[in-house]
Description:
Blueprint: H1 6-18, H2 21-28, H3 32-46, E1 51-54, E2 57-60, H4 62-87, E3 92-98, H5 100-105, H6 107-117, E4 121-127, H7 130-138, E5 144-148, E6 157-171, E7 187-190, H8 196-207, E8 214-217, H9 221-229, E9 234-238, H10 239-244, E10 251-255, H11 258-261, E11 262-269, H12 275-281
Helix pairs in contact: 1-2, 1-3, 1-4, 2-3
Keywords: DNA-binding, Transcription, Transcription regulation
GO molecular function: DNA-binding transcription factor activity; transcription cis-regulatory region binding
Family: Belongs to the LysR transcriptional regulatory family.
Amino acid sequence: MRNMNLDDLHIFCTVVQEGGVARAAARLNRVPSNVTTRMKQLEDRLSVSLFRRQGRGLVLTEPGRVLLGHAERLLQMADLAEQEVRTGAMRGKLKLGSLESTAGARLPPLLSAFHRQHPDLAIELIPGITEVLLRMLERYEIDAAFVAEPFEPGRLSCLPVYNEELTLISAKGTPAICNAQDMGGQTIVVFPHGCSYRRRLTEWLAAEGVSPGRILEFGSYHAIVACVAAATGIGIISAELLDKAVIGTDVQRHTLPDQLRFNRTHLVWSGDVSPPLQALINLLPKLE
């Protein structure tokens, strides 16, 4: 691995971006045979195949996807190092995954402060549910992510950053929900599998021996709140986000038991903390 150089990684990333050797060679102002040779040498050095043919193009193998995440980070860090040495200011991009609830309720003031302090650093925000964001971290597709309990961190580093209060919501005028039995046979409106809030709700119902009537899955909180307001079913949502939702007053709130009501959002990342990520961490609240 110590013999791998940044030029090889740059060629590799370009082949991935262009989907083939010929287009990558044109972009790099190299002859295709040179690009092919460099990729073959890289594969020999790693003792793996990085690409496989699909039609007229090339697609990454699983080892190739792993290398791509590392390569992009190494190239970015090299660019950052050069820029910081020359100018004294951090530049580059931080790929940040986030729950939609966190992005909507928590991140606007944080990102505003970050931009004011580091105008030459860009943040690319990628929304998703906890399970999907953790997989993206494992594949080095993002630099860090805001995810919610419960989750299994494995080898990831974690920093608790926000205390959240969860609430059940239903259409206005529906009967009060005082316990899990009140939800028996009801439709629940939630994110797809992999959502931490959905997991907490379904585990609570299962522990109480309660089965929902059916489960409707939606990809955004706006859709969930709108469907609940239209008496489609019952949802679970961050109270902080509901306070800021445009139609947040169109639904009825129901208090959850304490073991389900209180939750935490964590910032998680893989490997060492990069300078851009450290700059973000410096702006986050510190929880015990």
